[in-house]
Amino acid sequence: MIDFITIVEVGPRDGLQNEANTLPATSRIELIDRLANCGVPVIEAGSFVSPGWVPQMDGTGEVLAGINPLPGTRYPVLVPNMKGFELASEAGATEIALFTAASESFSQRNTNCSIAESIARLAPVAEQARAAGMRVRGYVSCVLGCPYEGDIESSDVVSVCEQLASIGCDEISLGDTIGAGTAAEASALVKDVMSVVAADRLAVHFHDTYGQALANILACLDAGIETVDSSVAGLGGCPYAKGASGNVATEDVVYMLRGLGLETGINLHRLAETGDWISKQLRRANNSRAGVALLNKTNQQGVPEDEIE
Ligand code: HMG
Ligand code: MG
What we know:
Layout: E1 6-9, H1 11-15, H2 25-37, E2 42-43, E3 46-47, H3 60-66, E4 77-78, H4 82-90, E5 95-101, H5 104-111, H6 115-131, E6 135-141, H7 154-166, E7 171-176, H8 183-193, E8 202-206, H9 213-222, E9 227-230, H10 250-259, H11 268-282, H12 289-301
Parallel strand pairs: 1-2, 1-9, 3-4, 4-5, 5-6, 6-7, 7-8, 8-9
Helix pairs in contact: 2-3, 2-11, 8-9, 10-11, 11-12
Bound molecules: 3-hydroxy-3-methylglutaryl-coenzyme A (HMG) and magnesium ion.
């Protein structure tokens, strides 16, 4: 294992896109700035998708215009098609994330097209983004199960990853969209995918529906994964995967990594405060076990000395 793990914070996009309370741009901006000030290296700032499909992400242009970008911090945005890419470019985005699925039914419900159509739609977007010097991430949803089709063959995931790599994705994130996967399956899958895409170009993206996310991440780290997606306070779910819980909480991942001696560059105390703040903004429970425990401890004992700045 290497000693630095890159956390990709997806709360302001994957988290907020599925919250019942839609936040105004000002709160989305504050969330992103707070996360950056915790030392989070990559923050997915929002998406340029159809507002009819995902109204929570309307106004992402305003969000990008309002944040105070920190030098060295990356702020990618999700786009589904050329129109989204054009809007993202006009709004000053410097990095994009594209998405497709390993399940035909999910692709249809999420983007109204087949997997092959989505790749054909995304190829020119990736090409233009790269020509503009942007880094391009590609997501694959439903890598360990689909809400409509059940089990997914790992060969289908490998094939989609190969296609995303061939259209120019610098990094590919493997999404367990419904959070049904277990550690042995996750480990076997990433090893299969590593036969076509190098480990340092892969990320894992676990939702915590069955409480398996941390175990899955640990198994994937053992398999050589260096990039982990997570969401502060465990925000979110998936609009097209009923019952799916939010992404694994960033606080929980950072706490686990710290215990393994792995660095993230993130101030955990500040992150726990951010998780508490956003949960209050959304009037929902804080879904980070580590975040809640750390704040309770701080209330009793004060801020730990190594986290005072
Ligand atoms: P469609 O209805 O087939 O598209 O949707 P269309 O081209 O016919 O357009 C319909 C309307 O949307 C038109 O407007 C377009 O202009 C507009 P109208 O003429 O009716 O007024 N439109 C747009 N507006 C703003 N931005 C755009 C855009 N494109 C079209 N980019 C479409 C196809 C892809 C647009 C739609 O299905 C869509 O936006 N889907 C996005 C769904 C989404 O955001 N899902 C969540 C993200 S994926 C995810 O969460 C999984 C992930 O986290 C990994 C994991 O967990 O597995 C990444
Ligand atoms: Mg997701």
